[in-house]
Amino acid sequence: MATHLTGQRMFLAGKWVSGERTIDVYDPQDNSVVDTVPAATADDMLRCIEAAKTGAETAAAMPVHERMSILTKAAAYIEEHADRYAQTISREGSKTIREARKEVMRCVQTIRISAEETRRIHGETIPFDQTPGGENRVGYYYRFPIGIIGAITPFNDPLNLVAHKVGPAIASGNAIIVKPATVTPLSALLLAEAFVQAGLPPKVLSVVTGHGSEIGDVLVTHPAIRMISFTGGVEVGEELTKKAGLKKISMELGSNSPLIVLADADLDDAVASAVSGAFGAAGQNCLSVQRIYVEEPVSYAFKTKFVEQTVQLQVGDKQSELTDMGPLITEKEAKRVERLVDDALEQGATLLTGGTRNGAFYSPTVLADVPEECAIAVNEIFGPVVLLYTVPDLNEAIEQSNKVDYGLQAGIFTKSIDKAHKAIAKMQVGGIMINDSGDYRIDAMPFGGVKKSGLGREGVAFAIEEMTEPKVVCFKLATD
Predict the structure, then answer these.
(1) Is it true that 10-253+454-471 and 257-442 share their CATH fold?
(2) Can 252 be counted among the known catalytic residues?
(3) For 257-276, how does the pLDDT look when each residue is reduced to its tens digit (9 = 90+)?
(4) What is 10-253+454-471's CATH superfamily?
(5) CATH 3.30.70.2390 is held by the domain 257-442
(6) 24 FRET partner, CA 20 to 30 A, in 50, 130, 142, 264?
(7) HEC profile for the chain?
(8) Catalytic residue among 99, 117, 193, 252
């Protein structure tokens, strides 16, 4: 594909700004340069934060109907230019063009939900006379914006995961500074473009491109930043919590998602959902199905069908409508996955299919007999690899599912309402999907996990809760 470099500018406090240094954005499929973006400096970030102080005042003063109007117009702009947004997602990232189109439409929905939730930021009256001496007091609480939010976003959903931070921030009357993933900054800049076209006041939103090592600490540690919203890996998340200081933190840090298939399950449905959940976006999804526990009576049948469908996946050109799976985000990441698989095989795992790498491409891979102490079994793979296990019953499946340090979402296939409820009660996760794989999500639901999978919840209404604080108002009335 011919490459046309336009040289993008970052969006700093309402202005499109160039930089002395630039970062090349590569297409992982062929390592061609898609475009360039500025490499912001620490001083750039400091100027942005200073401007955002004014932006926060502007945002907080915006009436609800104006916030709703801006969000609605931004969503309409993205929908109108959906093909351009999808092409950008697919070129700079790992997604096939079909996957990219789905992400664009999810982004549109995320922003429209944000517009709707703007009108639902409510408070409540408080009966102060519940306490002796409070008979002459009446009052309420309402929610107010916290100020400036720092958002650090990942590469795997470069548009919609940014929208999940920007949409609720604007809906709740905050200013927000986005530091997008260095390898996929173009989609975030396109999101900023939509808000410019929608009439968002200057200084409310910034998208600052650059290396985390140069600008990340400035954003995270600055006292004017009242909340950090981060989506990424556990190691980085732990470092951010140490550096952030006294500010709110919301983090989605990944998973090692289990799927349980019981003997009474609809196997065809379970297999199709598991294959999609394991290999969508080349497995680079925090909800990606990683471990599958199959009850013994149907284990062989499930394994046979699962491998058959995995082999049929078309891996190749992201722009082809026939392609099911593209490359990983970089060749370095593909090599990391390759090492994990090779380590498991050396420790006794059985390769059922896949296990080969070509540049940034890694074939859809299915492993069995994986020792539970293997790195690939206990950590997040973030690649197109799934582990199959046979278990005697539901109790063992739940016990094995809970053994890892993650707990984002899980899935279970069963026709038994009793067994489904047992899994619901016992599985240590933030969400459980019944007769679906754990990678199912809608943008309106609370999204987050337990243990090392993160802190707090996203999902528009729930992010708004995180981005606001309650203020109590009490009137002491004069007595007759």
Answers:
(1) no
(2) yes
(3) 999 999 999 999 999 999 99
(4) Aldehyde Dehydrogenase; Chain A, domain 1 (3.40.605.10)
(5) no
(6) 50
(7) CCCCCCCCCEEECCEEECCCCEEEEEECCCCEEEEEEECCCHHHHHHHHHHHHHHHHHHHHCCHHHHHHHHHHHHHHHHHCHHHHHHHHHHHCCCCHHHHHHHHHHHHHHHHHHHHHHCCCCCEEECHHHCCCCCCEEEEEEEEECCEEEEECCCCCCCHHHHHHHHHHHHCCCEEEEECCCCCCHHHHHHHHHHHHCCCCCCCEEECCCCHHHHHHHHHHCCCEEEEEEECCHHHHHHHHHHHCCCEEEEECCCCEEEEECCCCCHHHHHHHHHHHHHHHHHCCCCCEEEEEEEHHHHHHHHHHHHHHHHCCCECCCCCCCCCECCCCCHHHHHHHHHHHHHHHHCCCEEEECCCEECCEECCEEEECCCCCCHHHHCCCCCCEEEEEEECCHHHHHHHHCCCCEECEEEEECCCHHHHHHHHHHCCCCEEEECCCCCCCCCCCCECCEECCEECCECHHHHHHHCEEEEEEEEECCCC
(8) 252
